[in-house]
Amino acid sequence: MGGRRADPRTGLLRELSDFPNLVTGGAQWLWANPAPIRISRLGRVLNARVRALFDARRRNRGTKTMKHFETAILALGLMLVALPVVRAADTTCPPNPSPGSTVNGNLIVPANASCTVTSTLTVTNNVVVGTGASLGVFPVDGQTVTIDGNIIADQCNSVAIQTFGDGVFSVGGNVNIQNCTGPVNGYSGIRVTIGGNFLCANSGVCVAGDGVVQGNLTMDNNTAVSEVDNNQIGGNVDVSGNSGSPPMVEDNRIGDNLQCFNNNPSPSNFGFPNSVSGNERGQCVGF
Question: Whole-angstrom Cα distance, residue 197 to residue 241?
């Protein structure tokens, strides 16, 4: 058990000036606010195409941060592809939604397309990410992205959510990411709130960092990287069946049970204990 430290995990910081050619919109805020951000050891698992997009100096001092997530989501914003619409009753992206707009109904990212949101947007129903498609949601200072329903992604390329500055992201329902093959999936940001459950399963890299999940969090059967770091989780946490690097389960406040089974290698809290109100089971006993 353990609480939040005043200055956790110092030692692996990078100035934003290390990143060239950032995503339009998000980039404007980032370049204007060159404060250091946390970046993690995850950079080593980026695929060759993503690495080629960034001339970033790689440093690893053995401490946990969010380097892979911060780097890969910026790369995703560069991969925009325009494809035809689907059903007439839905709103499709691309084109990217206009700043400050409201989508009355579902927002659909068609198969193999890419949708990037950096400014204020409200979706009154669900966001559905098609086969091979990518969704990037990066609200910057003063921007709020609100999804009243769920985010549903099965066999997608990637779903990446990251808040910058005082940007806010919230989803009223669940976030379900399954069978997605891209370089990174999940969320990172202290102003990320998920009203229901978060699931990231049967994918490569899955990250859940710094946010609030009011329901359960499940991270199962991923093959490269699995991180559950510094979250407030109202329900249960299940981290099971993951492979690749040791799953990270650290510094979370968990309202119910924490269980970890059949991970290879075994998970670790990397020296930052979790606060668990319920029971700890399997490989996460003593976390």
Answer: 19
Please, what is the average pLDDT of the chain?
78
What are the C-alpha distances in Å from 11 to residues 34, 38, 165, 218?
Answer: 17, 9, 21, 29
Taking the C-alpha atoms of residue 75 and residue 54, their distance in angstroms, rounded to an integer, is 8
- Structure token digits, residue 65: 């941060």
Closest among 264, 222, 190, 225 to 40, alpha carbons compared: 225
Torsion from C-alpha of 1, 250, 65, 128, nearest 10 degrees: -140
Q: What angle do CA 60, 61, 62 make, to 5 degrees?
A: 95
* Dihedral, CA of residue 127, residue 132, residue 240 and residue 61, to nearest 10: -100
Single-letter amino acid, residue 257: N
pLDDT tens-digit series, residues 47-72: 333 333 333 323 333 334 344 445 44
Lookup: tokens for 3: 């609480």
Q: What is the C-alpha to C-alpha distance for residues 287 and 281, in angstroms, rounded to an integer?
A: 9
pLDDT digits (tens, 9 = 90+) for 190-205: 999 999 999 999 999 9
Strands in 275-276's sheet, in edge-to-edge order, are 101-103, 121-123, 144-147, 168-171, 192-194, 212-213, 232-233, 253-254, 275-276
